[in-house]
Amino acid sequence: MSDSLRQLSEQGVAVWLDDLSRARLQTGNLEELVRERSVVGVTTNPAIFQKAISGSEVYSDQLRDLALRGTDVGEALRALTTYDVRWACDVLRPQWEASGGRDGRVSIEVDPRIAHETDRTVAEAKALWWLVDRPNLLIKIPATVAGIPAIASTLAEGISVNVTLIFSLERYEAVMNAYIEGLERAQANGHDISKIESVASFFVSRVDTEIDKRLDKIGSDEAKALRGKAANANARLAYQLYEKVFSGERWEALKAAGAKAQRPLWASTGVKDPAYDDTMYVVELVAPDTVNTMPEATLQAVFDHGQVRGNTIAGSYEAAQQVLDDVKGVGVDYDDVVRVLEEEGVDKFEVAWNELIESVSGELERMGAEVMPAGATKPAGSGPASASPEGSSK
Fold first, then answer.
1. Which pLDDT score is estimated for 18?
2. pTM, to two decimals
3. Using CA atoms, how far apart are residues 246 and 240, in angstroms rounded to an integer?
4. Which terminus of the chain, N or C, has fewer Cβ atoms within 10 Å?
């Protein structure tokens, strides 16, 4: 049986895993996926950490120690998550070295509650970079309006960035321009820009989910015929923009100084509609210098039965534009779709983070009650009820 994941790699698609947990690290599963499933990177987000940490006993020892120290919940969350990310960075260090720093990357996201605050996002990005302290880290920053200048300012500090929650072509172009600006500023600040890496996480399946819902509401045969087509069309047009931006004079000057293009990363590649092929957001988006980050179920599906047919983006731009034109023609407002998706994306991560705060806070309180000697008091200002973004930046 041919290894479709290896074939993807040969086509220039970096295979990344969209998941991380301490259990995956402890059991050696991540190392196994690197060895047997061509995985060369890992992405995380608040929802992934919420799922990994809440109710899991593998974090109990560290939580107990944090409770003994009277650690507040914000600091505790960063201790838990950065520990896992640091470990994953070490697992992937050989891939980082072998690829000249291109792959072997692990992402950690800034606090989603400050997604609309530029300066605090930059401050948190710097704090996370310092906390993890690994050269193969990527700091995830949402591509909100406030996130665009934060991306440039973080890169200007010499920090590698994964820009997340990109849905629209217009916002994607702004992200790439922020990357170029950030590199120019980093160069002016004396940083070696050849060591700065970035990916732009362009979300795929969620676009179909939202547009399909609107097509179903319209209900015409013409509308129904467009189901499941918009997301890949949108991504293919994003790749067209990538080729355009990273070929101009402004970019060529940076490239001559050793800069590397910001690769498109296809995110949200798990199929939501069971009627669709479960590998469609992978095999239909094959092109050089891209990344596809997959949940494990999608990764295994591609390995098992994915049909890699070479470059499936080249020559597709006219047809992709026609799909989006047809979607608009039946009454779906593209601008409203991407606005809703961005708002929902930020909200979902914020909800997951708040749920994790509640879960960890409860564990700290429970363990603190068990381990604190009678009559002992916690250090001033360290109560686990604190859940401010400042606390999570320590």
1. 98
2. 0.93
3. 10
4. N
